[in-house]
Automatic annotation (TrEMBL):
PANTHER family: DEHYDROGENASES, SHORT CHAIN (PTHR24321), OXIDOREDUCTASE UCPA (PTHR24321:SF15). This is Short-chain dehydrogenase. Pfam families: adh_short_C2. InterPro entries: NAD(P)-bd_dom_sf, SDR_fam. It comes from Asaia siamensis. Keywords: Oxidoreductase. Belongs to the short-chain dehydrogenases/reductases (SDR) family.
Amino acid sequence: MRLSDKTAVITGAARGIGLAIARHFRDEGCNVILTDIDAENGQREAEALSCRFLSLDVRSEKDWEALASFCPSPDIVVNNAGITGFENGVVAHDPEHATLTDWHAVHRTNLDGTFLGCRYALRGMGRRGTGSIINISSRSGLVGIPGAAAYASSKAAIRNHTKSVALYAAQKGWAIRCNSIHPAAILTPMWEAMLGDGPDREARMKALVADTPLKRFGTVDEVAAICVMLASDEVTYITGSEFSIDGGLLAGSAAVPG
């Protein structure tokens, strides 16, 4: 029970990585508050986990203020909520053709939402001077993605803001840590539209991870396991750090010299 007697707030927890984090935290004895803009699924999943749920649009300061009234001093905050920009279909997200509206939409959720989440965490955790903030960035925040420029830019900004928050907390003399996690291809519901359920599903999956040294998708449980570690009191000397979970993708070339 590595997280017993702690309270955690997780954004974007109605499904995927956020839901897996909530489940792992609960299993470690944590009091978990699931939040999401999807109130129907969020409430259902919270009830299944015997946890609490609060509707939260991470772009809304009023929603964060309501959360602060509901949970004024969390021990752990996981800023997981995010979008790719392709939720409503294929649109141009390359640097030449992306519209300013589409660019802003991705940054409002991913970057502004993380900023507001970190601000909420610092104000609440600062009352006692301890806590753990975990920001879910992406492999795309470490490399360029020509066809998803807004997503890559927002995730890169999350990586940098994480370090600013970590340094700010340290300068205040707080034992509040802030770290970022950078998943690559993690099998979540967002991939389903691309993979489909036809006979070629396995072939599609193999093609999408062909460049990954481990030749497979990561799992939401593998991301959640890192979150448990960072949320626990076992790694209190880690702050401002980034953790890649990408099957070795960024390690370099897996090619064998001839």
